[in-house]
Design goal:
single chain; mainly alpha; Arc Repressor Mutant, subunit A; 7 helices; 5 strands; 6% strand
């Protein structure tokens, strides 16, 4: 079993058992405790579970995987989609939006060619793509943070510089705009078929 397959199997165990122990995982996969500790550390770093002394727990709060990764991991076996399908879905939806309103949206990566249009970045949905996690500080003047917004907060005049690291304590007191985020999970297979992806 390759490490990625083993880590996926560990995540499946975490969904079924609320508390994982290093010894149990090592025995199940026939690997050393150190190998399991490395696997758990990688999964923790990706926000997929919470590493604790002697084992791991599923994430309780704040440690969420990116949306596209959760679509893949949280779906049942019949609904599971592959990374290339996830990216193709994101591209197809982005292209449909661009075609519907070409004066407003673009899928062109080059900033100079965007002409002030909203860039629909479907490329974040590919395997190994990176994205800035919510609440992450940005290495920019003013110490801005990637603040999670509800769709109702996204409107003309929104200034991303209004969300900074010094403002974080006050922002944390506001209601969580993504509290219902998980409720949006869905099986993409029928949509992929409709889109011809």
């Amino acid at each position: 079993m390759i490490p990625e397959q083993r880590r996926d199997a560990i995540l499946e165990m975490a969904r079924q058992i609320s508390e994982l122990k290093v010894e149990d995982i090592a025995a199940r996969f026939g690997v050393s405790r150190e190998t399991v500790r490395r696997d758990l550390a990688r999964l923790d770093a990706r926000g997929l579970l919470r590493r604790v002394h002697g084992g791991a727990h599923p994430p309780q709060t704040g440690a969420e995987a990116p949306f596209h990764r959760r679509l893949i991991e949280n779906a049942d076996a019949k609904a599971r989609i592959e990374w290339d399908q996830c990216k193709a879905f994101a591209r197809a939806v982005s292209e449909l939006m661009r075609q519907d309103d070409p004066d407003r949206f673009t899928t062109t990566l080059a900033k100079k060619a965007r002409g002030g249009k909203i860039f629909l970045d479907y490329l974040r949905n590919g395997r190994m793509a990176t994205a800035v996690a919510p609440w992450s500080p940005r290495a920019r003047p003013g110490a801005g943070i990637a603040f999670p917004l509800s769709w109702g907060q996204v409107k003309k005049g929104l200034d991303p510089r209004a969300f900074t690291l010094p403002d974080a304590p006050a922002l944390l007191k506001k209601p969580d705009p993504w509290k219902d985020f998980r409720g949006a999970e869905t099986n993409l297979r029928p949509v992929l078929k409709t889109l011809g992806v």
